[in-house]
Structure prediction request, 211 residues.
Amino acid sequence: MALTKAAMAERLHEDLGLNKREAKELVELFFEEIRATLESGNQVKLSGFGNFNLRNKSERPGRNPKTGEEIPITARRVVTFSPGQKLKARVEAYAGSGEQSQQ
Amino acid sequence: MTKSELIESLSRKQSQLHPRDVEMAVKNLLEQMSQSLASGSRIEIRGFGSFSLHFRPPRVGRNPKTGSPVPLPGKHVPHFKPGKELRERVDMNSANSEISQDMSAAND
Prediction:
């Protein structure tokens, strides 16, 4: 089962004793704060977990996969995530099947 | 923005909570997320994005000193796919703000 905001808030409630409303608000605010920071053009560095970085991509040629028609992919800014050492090491040890869904 | 700056900013916005509780909550959330990925579970946050694992198959590497082949086992790496809202908000603003992570050194 995938981890969701609801499950994260429930855990905050259980582990830290925040009431359910506070926990839900805090989870919402946590992700909003990261989004707003990235939106304002700043990277977010969460030590032990990873960094959210911004990259400017210039325009490049693309194609409509259905029609094969050539259309340029416009210049844009994108978010990239680079996992920290600690997270990488923890995940590397996971021995499950290599077929984890990519959605 | 670093983890401690994130905690400070959230504390200002949730003034009814003790800053220490906000700090514990942020650490708890990051630990939950790490734990989820470490056990092979995805994370799905609507409007923010999803985290999953990608598999890197085993390959033969080389010892850079001796050049001898070294078998490297397969492994999983964390992967983040930004959600629609995050993608749009970040891109929409690209026209009127500079990326500061690359600029800080030049501006100092």
